[in-house]
Design goal:
Blueprint lengths: L3 H15 L6 H11 L6 H9 L5 H6 L7 H16 L1 H18 L8
Length: about 110
């Protein structure tokens, strides 16, 4: 479970992201002071470094999209198959050969 220190920093970072302001330790600390929330001094810097270079709005909008993106991901290989189907097949053949070579070594899982 997240501590109140973590949650306060998360909410401050979300406020900054919503206002399209760069997320820095100083700005997180300023929001926390304005809200009257006391946190350990390392939390704002930790969150600022963790979110450095991250588009927080995009991160939030893609939280639950892993199931929704599966059909889109399936469409991408189909489009790639039209342009160069030989490359993926060659990789699959190599994988199958490596699996068969394990069987040729004379031992198996149940031996």
């Amino acid at each position: 479970m997240a501590s109140s220190n973590e949650l306060a920093c998360v909410y401050a970072a979300l406020i900054l992201a919503d206002d399209q302001v760069a997320i820095t330790a100083e700005k997180i600390q300023t929001i926390l002071k304005a809200a009257g929330v006391a946190v350990e001094p390392y939390w704002p810097g930790l969150f600022a470094r963790a979110l450095e270079g991250v588009n927080v709005k995009e991160l939030i909008t893609n939280v639950g999209s892993s199931a929704g993106s599966a059909p889109a991901a399936g469409a991408a290989p189909a489009a790639a198959a039209d342009t160069g189907a030989a490359k993926p097949e060659a990789k699959e053949e190599k994988k199958e050969e490596s699996e068969e070579s394990d069987d040729d070594m004379g031992f198996g899982l149940f031996d």
